[in-house]
Amino acid sequence: MADATPQAVDNIPPAEVPEVELYHPKSWWTKYVFSQDAKVIAIQYSGTAIAIGLVALVLSWLIRLQLGFPGTFDFITPEAYYQFITMHGMIMVVYLLTALFLGGFGNYLIPLMVGARDMVFPYVNMLSFWVYLLAVLVLVASFFAPGGPTGAGWTLYPPQAITSGTPGGQQAGILLMLASLMLFIVGFTMGGLNYVVTVLQARTRGMTLMRMPLTVWGIFTATVMALLAFPALFVACVMMLFDRLLGTSFFMPALVEFGEQLEYGGGSPILFQHLFWFFGHPEVYIVALPAFGIVSDLISTHARKNIFGYRMMVWAIVGIGALSFIVWAHHMYVSGMDPYFGFFFATTTLIIAVPTAIKVYNWVLTLWRGDIHLSLPMLFAIGFIVTFVNGGLTGLFLGNVVVDVPLSDTMFVVAHFHMVMGVAPIMVIFGAIYHWYPKMTGRMLNEAMGQFHFWVTFVGAYAIFFPMHYVGLVGVPRRYHELGDATFVTDSLHSLNAFISVAALIVGFAQVVFMFNLFWSLRYGKESGGNPWRATTLEWQTPETPPIHGNFGKDLPIVYRWAYDYSVPDAPDDYLAQNDPWPQKAPASEAAS
Amino acid sequence: MAIALILVVVVVGSIMFHVLSPWWWTPIASNWGYIDDTLIITFWITGVVFTLVILFMAYCVLRFRHKEGRKAAYEPENNKLEWALTIVTGLGVAAMLAPGLIVWAQFVSVPDEATEIEVLAQQWSWNFRLPGADGKLGLSDNRLIDADNPLGVNRSDAAGQDDIIIEADDLHLPIGKPVKVLLRSADVLHDFYVPEFRAKMDMLPGMVTYFWFTPTRTGEFEILCAELCGVGHPHMRGFVVIDTEEDYQEWLQEQSTFAQLSSPTKLSAAARLEE
Prior knowledge:
The complex is a heterodimer of chains A (593) and B (275). Chain A is mainly α. In chain A, 61% of the residues lie in helices and 1% in strands. Among the domains of chain A are: 35-207, no CATH class; 534-593, no CATH class. Residues 1-7 of chain A have low confidence and may be disordered. Chain B contains five helices and ten strands. In chain B, the strands form two sheets. In chain B, strands 3-2-1-5-8 form a five-stranded mixed sheet, with no helix packed on it. In chain B, α1 (2-20) runs antiparallel to α2 and α2 runs antiparallel to α3 (79-108). The model of chain B has no long low-confidence stretch (mean pLDDT 91).
């Protein structure tokens, strides 16, 4: 309990290592372009991720236009449709969500929140971004390659991914996709090692692990997981490239394509699926854990109340992270693997629901008896809880092996994962941007535009994805560019699809307003001051806003308490910053800074 | 206020949508009603949890909304409450998992009397093979597939000679008899999916996968492909017709065996020579 009470540290541990001189930029180029400042790198990461995310948004409109109004748009050929869904999925999961949470929020928040001057390896950190940018450019290049991008579905299952019945399978599309993924992993690894070492080695004095804000816990755990999971995808990419280019047969058994025997034999398509999902399932939590961490801090700050059950929250994050490595085959219940695996993976998968449920209870119990300010970050946090609870619960359908059998590969799955790892984490991203934008720019985002953005996005996204579960329950398989005739394809089903498409277009429009707000408020937003939300964590206590290179003043802050001292009885204010020594007096060096 | 109201609307709206909307699963035509039952249990448990959590949150937002002079409570932890919630959650999860695993045990235990049939998928059509009088399917291999032998049946295996071959046509099965469906693919991944049977399974080149079911209703049921298999994926359709025993026998008489299908090539060659 010592760490969870407002008790001040008696003796502050001495600084273990002398501070290293940072490389300060000498020119415009090294300050804004080839910058080694984690905060600049964070903005570069975020800008790139959001830019490529807009491409994915437009692709989602095209997908929905085809599904809602089949046959109306001639340019959406079957080939184009499969290319759209593939690129939409891959961009959203890897190039937007992973990059934005870890490269964007990780870079910006880790050094500030743990009280470090920068990441421990600033030069490698800079390289991480440039390799990521290269990965994005290679991905974009595939749109312009002969034959277009790959249309193999974001799961890239062989043999289909590299055969001629699939767009880009025998052309450049799949090659560029694999190359881009490999580059992404290289770039991520450089950044990821930085985040982990910074959290472990560069925390300021008094910042014990159990005093770290949950945001840092979430990003830290997700990064460790990503460092363990991405190599599986990397080797899968290498093996598939070899199969495609060198004629090896890692994933390719003897097969006959349109009456012609191909020169493959002995490989296993299911091996790829194991490698892919050994990466792919932790990937879900690589996106979710930073969101869990961030939303905890948003709720606590804006409800003026300590996060409920902090230690349980930390262990839930770590527990979910560990468990997520032994549940991957729940994506493969009907893949043709030995069906007896189903017993094991259904059990592990449903066990993971317990720590996840604890997190939900603790968020809601943080609201209970709080002092809830319905600011934009709080609204988005509430939106997150609704969509996450909904999406998490439908996960119990798909994780329970026998219930998965009729639902697998239907639109129910599409609705589930969009709700749980699309809408829910993106709600957190929006909440986080409204929350930290003032720190990054010194100005608040416009409230009216923000309200419009929240209401349309939250209500609209729910209206898209809740009914979509029932499209799948009826029997509609995923990845069908048109339904054709089937007993379950009724007029009412077509109208439901059209409704979903209209809702998707409206929600998409609200994002344009949000983008406009980001630029508009840069210039016309209300000035925020250094700590507009009266928050406790260290990033709000910097001498300058936005923080300059090196983050803190002459002396690094000393941490006396956990991150959640809101509404402490008898305290002078309704929050105590982590570097506030109350009820003791600050030591002389602290008082000076 | 608005947010509390919308939370209530979300809960009530979701429940009403679930109860009143016309979109529900297709009437079942196999023995896997257990799967539907497990699904219903899951709907109930998750529905109750969803309703309670969201309504409680709506209450909190309404009751503890910021007002001048309000101060939040200070309670970092509450071990009793946290453990109670953990245990209740564990019980809820067990209540879904246990029936699920029991039904799965049935799903993976194929009855001994089940007839083995084979489905071979290819881009983008379905082929079928039924055992002949010997009740056994002959060996097969993708490397043997050619124009005259679209299923790659091994010519030197005697058990395969009387196998019934159905190329890109409807599959017929008798009602009430358990079937073990052996699944093969000639090229890429496919998935044999008949919504009314509830069961489905991927098909992979180089492997034989399976599932079993007993048809419980006569009629014509559409086969869809449920694993992305290239641009023709949605158009890969076929039909399973569940017949009464007499109708099935009648249909069976009209089908050709592997041996019969192999010999006409020789016959027609001979006929051509005569001309």
